[in-house]
Amino acid sequence: MYFFRSFLISLQKQTWLAALLCALPVFLYLLTFVKIALNVNYVAYDDILILGVIPGFEDATWLERWHSLTDPFPEHRLVFSRSLVLASYFLFGKVNLLSLMVIGNLCWLGCAGVFYAVFRRMRLSLWHFVPVVWLWFTIHSFENIFWGVSSLCNFGVLLFAMMAFYFISHSQNLLAALLCALAATFTYGNGITVFVIIAFVLWITGRRKAFFLTTALFVLTAFLYFSGFPQKTESLDFSDPEQLWQGLAGFFGFIGAITAFDAYSVDPIPLGMAVVTGLLMAVIFVAIFGKKLPSFFQSLLGRPMQLSPAGQFALALLLFVAISSFAVLYKRIPLGGFESLFKGRYRMYSSLGWVMLHLGALTWLRSQRRQRWTITLVIFGILINLTLLYVNFATAVNNRRAAVVQEFNTRYNSDWLGLRMFQMSQAHFETIRSYYQSDDPLAEGWNPRTATDSLPCVGTYELDSVLRYKDEIHAYAMSDFFDAEESYTDGPYVLLKSATHVYASPPNQFAVPLRTILRRFRYFARGFQGIFHEDTVEPGVYKIYVLMRRNGKNEIYCTNQTWIEPN
Predict the structure, then answer these.
(1) Which of 94, 105, 323, 494 has CA 20 to 30 A from 57's CA?
(2) Which stretches are transmembrane (predicted)?
(3) What are the beta bridge partners of residue 504?
């Protein structure tokens, strides 16, 4: 025990090592972004819909412009993201979605900067900040990382919220805090709760005048925000026991989602782990905040609570995570049930919850317990970060390839399901696409619009099987390794070609087991599988091809197989 304590004391003095450990997850995050990010509309059409603010904006009246900026989408007022889209277009003549992603991820980085500002005021060793960086710079929420508009919305609202909480807790700058709360409100839907949280912190700490000013501004902002809102969608039914049970489990699962690992998993085991983790986080918070609970409850009745600035900040984070969790389950449970709460773009709130716990532990625990807590969380944070990187990197790559494929399918099929779902014409899609000027890599070297099912091939590629599984068409080829050379747009894509339609599927590659990575230094497994949802494939006779993209160049291979899609 003496040797271990001596080792810890010696290690604590190695600030350079702590700084290196802080830099490493940022480097891994940046490297992942550089490798995968593309100037392409994500697999949903949100980017296309938001860029729809551009046509006619310059010639509109000021009132019409305001309506365009604040038009609900669907329950959010996306003034921040739309303003950046317009600024990019009018300054540079186009909107580079990659630039929007960069700005969004800088907001994520800015949140870490706010956390560090809080940490610096605590005057602790840099080692205590190491867990924050490893827990924050994961790729669990890669939907936001690589999605132009979503990154601005989801990461932007976090930055404005964190800044508001910092100003109200550390600098006592009410004006700055309220301006940040206003910015958060018109960045994403849950941003309006920042006003409520600021008012709550002001009340329990006895700042009555500031509390009433904040409440008055909140009422005014809420009136403007909800004025003209469309009819609300179905929400949680408190009289339904099943929905209540799913909501309760979903609340803790949402908070503990970091241990569900796979961002798209619907397996009950990892989702159950997330629920257990959320419950554990709640228990940990009560344990470290326990001594403050009596004075906390007294503060609700009007007796000011003595709470350090870092403690106020941590408490604000807790409320923000809890309210956001409830808001999501209130909206999502009736629409998709328990599993719908685990979308990749929601996972960032689990990381935020752990940062809240850590800052709270540094504030409310005694020195010796604080040291043990930090050691445990350093190990936990590193393991979680690397596990999430291993589990989700392949899925993130597949999603970017899927985005390339969706643009291809939308461009060359005027009756594409995505266009019909969003009541969008192909001409409108091409108009919006001209604003961000994405490449069309899968169409290089051949003409997808050719009115024939026969394409010139450089050779033959044998598929292992082509079959219908449930409501999907699956094409498998599992014998060869395929490595991206120029970028992760490279890879084998399956094509269905008839005289009137052409559809592409991304490779859908998977990661090898961890021990195989360590032994062979390979990440992707052999082979690929093309998947087409039958609702997106019009009836007809299709020849099947493999488009092999290597080093940025396309080669088409015949498979000598045909697929008949019935009426």
Answers:
(1) 105
(2) 16-38, 97-119, 145-168, 174-203, 210-229, 244-264, 271-290, 310-330, 351-367, 373-391
(3) 495
Pick from 281, 70, 56, 353: nearest CA to 185: 70
Question: Hey, how many other C-beta atoms are within 10 angstroms of the C-beta on 276?
Answer: 14
The C-alpha torsion from 386 through 390 and 394 to 396, rounded to 10°, is: -20
Q: How many CB atoms lie within 10 A of CB 79?
A: 18
How does 494-517 read in b/e, with b if 16+ C-beta sit within 10 Å? Answer: bbbbbeebbbbbbbbbebeeeeee
* Residues 372-389 as b or e (16 or more Cβ within 10 Å = b): ebbeebbebbbebbebbb
Q: Which residues contact 483 (CB under 8 A, 6 or more apart)?
A: 490, 524
Q: Give the amino acid at 350.
A: S
Residues of the chain with CATH 2.60.40.10: 445-565
With 0-12 CB in 10 A as exposed, 13-18 as middle and 19+ as buried, what is 222?
A: middle
pLDDT digit string, tens, across residues 440-486: 999 999 999 999 999 999 999 999 999 999 899 999 999 888 888 77
User: Which two three-digit tokens encode residue 543?
Assistant: 């020849």
What pairs with residue 503 in β-bridges? Answer: 496
Residue 557: Cβ within 10 Å count = 19
> Chain centroid to CA 397: how far?
14
Tokens 């560090």 — which residue?
116
Question: Tokens 């500002």 appear where?
Answer: 117
Within 172-274, strands assigned E span none
Q: DSSP assignment of 97-112, as one string?
A: HHHHHHHHHHHHHHHH
Task: Give residue 211's pLDDT band: very low, low, confident or very high (50, 70, 90).
Answer: very high
Distance CA 343, CA 335 (A): 13
Backbone angles phi, psi at 496, to 5 degrees: -110, 120
Indicate the residue type of 25: P
CA 423 to mean position of chain CA atoms: 26
| Rounded Cα gap, residues 143 and 152, in angstroms | 12
Going by C-alpha positions, the residue among 143, 45, 46, 147 that lies closest to residue 97 is 147
pLDDT tens for 39-73 read 998 888 888 999 999 999 988 999 999 999 999 88
Radius of gyration of the chain (CA): 26
356 DSSP assignment:
H
d(CA 490, CA 397): 10
Instruction: Return the DSSP state at 445.
Output: T
Amino acid at 6: S
